[in-house]
């Protein structure tokens, strides 16, 4: 099922006397297993509020105008239902400009499922000849406030982000002090999207299925794959 969600919050306006240098648009797909906090992260970004209860079977869409690096950006954010059906996730794969992959650091299974979500996006976009634009994403470990229940180390999050070529964040949607960090997730998604549309498709990083699978297995077993140079929040 799909829901338009609550009315989108008012978007911030440019200060009087100033002009934005550019304008942009980006459709972001928020993906992950049920219960990892996809909706909580999305709503925290849009409204600065935390919601603890929501319907996990509904897809919600939001439009939000904001500023990223002096660029006036119109976000369309699709908060997916989190269902594991491959057909539905293939549809999302073709809709998105950039993808936010969310797992709960208190749930190792949700971390392992990121491989499935990522590969669906990668494979579908390869088949469609969509310029190889399948690595535009941000990896997010949610529920960092639940330190005593942690099942996924921050190191493993960094390693997986290296493997799939994503920026990495650890946040807590329930903590008001993480509002700025959560905003950076969406801003990084736009920055990564801008990189893909400004690059040569032939130069984009592409991982073979076997190579990707081997690297993922190393992360899951605890072996550290060779790290790329990356900046993390």
TrEMBL record:
What InterPro entries does the annotation carry?
Answer: P-loop_NTPase, Ras-related_GTPase, Small_GTP-bd, Small_GTPase
| Signal peptide extent | none
The EC number of this protein is 3.6.5.2
Region annotation Disordered: residue ranges? 1-20, 199-233
Q: Which keywords accompany this UniProt record?
A: Hydrolase
For this chain, the family text in UniProt reads:
Belongs to the small GTPase superfamily. Ras family.
The record's Pfam families line, in alphabetical order, gives: Ras (PF00071)
Enzyme class (EC, first level): hydrolase
Q: Which GO terms describe its molecular function?
A: G protein activity; GTP binding
Composition bias of kind Basic residues appears in 224-233
SUPFAM superfamilies from the UniProt entry: P-loop containing nucleoside triphosphate hydrolases
Stated name of the protein: small monomeric GTPase
Q: Which reaction does it catalyse?
A: GTP + H2O = GDP + phosphate + H(+)
